[in-house]
From TrEMBL:
<feature type="site" description="Important for substrate specificity">
    <location>
        <position position="159"/>
    </location>
</feature>
<dbReference type="GO" id="GO:0016787">
    <property type="term" value="F:hydrolase activity"/>
</dbReference>
<keyword id="KW-0546">Nucleotide metabolism</keyword>
<dbReference type="InterPro" id="IPR003697">
    <property type="entry name" value="Maf-like"/>
</dbReference>
<feature type="active site" description="Proton acceptor">
    <location>
        <position position="76"/>
    </location>
</feature>
<feature type="site" description="Important for substrate specificity">
    <location>
        <position position="16"/>
    </location>
</feature>
<feature type="site" description="Important for substrate specificity">
    <location>
        <position position="77"/>
    </location>
</feature>
<comment type="similarity">
    <text>Belongs to the Maf family. YhdE subfamily.</text>
</comment>
<keyword id="KW-0963">Cytoplasm</keyword>
<dbReference type="Pfam" id="PF02545">
    <property type="entry name" value="Maf"/>
</dbReference>
<comment type="function">
    <text>Nucleoside triphosphate pyrophosphatase that hydrolyzes dTTP and UTP. May have a dual role in cell division arrest and in preventing the incorporation of modified nucleotides into cellular nucleic acids.</text>
</comment>
<keyword id="KW-0378">Hydrolase</keyword>
<protein>
    <recommendedName>
        <fullName>dTTP/UTP pyrophosphatase</fullName>
        <ecNumber>3.6.1.9</ecNumber>
    </recommendedName>
</protein>
<dbReference type="InterPro" id="IPR029001">
    <property type="entry name" value="ITPase-like_fam"/>
</dbReference>
């Protein structure tokens, strides 16, 4: 039996984004991309995540087979403390410094979503506020040793062990994971893509 045709391309290697799309019943095919995610000088965190999501979406459109009119979905997430954008940690020292900075404080998580069709580019931005409890250095070190923080913006994953640090969340849990489902569902609906598909 033939598998159902994908409804969209997902321009992301993130297993979290794939899991979230599967959760809402959207059929997708992945496009593997290598995008320059450096932030421009004086670029606001909001503009930064929106720009990167759009660039990923455009790169995904370029990678998609010629003549294929499937929409391309892309996203980018940033953990923001003040105006400082915390990306993925370079190493254990960087991760421990991030967790120390986030300890006992509230930070923002911005996730931009871009949906590209041949005729239109649609974008949405989700902002959530996350407050961490105090984290001591030994606990942060043990967390690093789980392997979970290595590929996560801000050096933590809310869907894993990192949830132990979250004292309060205002906003979108799925947005903190990397794909805000409310905003994503709305963009897909506007483009004529049904979630909860069979």
């Amino acid at each position: 039996m033939l598998e159902p045709r994908p409804q969209i391309y997902l321009a992301s290697n993130s297993p979290r984004r794939a899991e979230l799309l599967t959760q809402i019943g959207v059929r997708f095919a992945r496009l593997s991309l290598d995008t320059d995610e450096r932030r421009f000088p004086d670029e606001s965190p909001e503009n930064y995540v929106l720009r990167i999501a759009v660039e990923k979406g455009r790169a995904g459109c370029d990678r998609a087979s010629r003549g294929d009119r499937l929409p391309v979905l892309a996203a980018d997430t940033a953990v923001v403390l003040g105006e400082r954008v915390l990306g993925k940690p370079r190493d254990s020292t960087d991760a421990l410094a991030m967790l120390a900075a986030l300890s006992g404080r509230t930070h923002r998580v911005l996730t931009a979503v871009a949906l590209m069709t041949p005729d239109q580019e649609r974008t949405a931005l989700s902002e959530s506020r996350v407050r961490f409890r105090e984290i001591d250095e030994e606990e942060a070190r043990r967390y690093w040793e789980t392997g979970e923080p290595a590929d996560k913006a801000g050096g933590y994953g809310i869907q894993g062990y990192g949830a132990l640090f979250v004292a309060n969340l205002e906003g979108s849990y799925s947005g903190v994971m990397g794909l805000p489902l409310f905003e994503t569902g709305r963009l897909l609906l506007e483009a004529g893509v049904a979630s909860m598909a069979r």
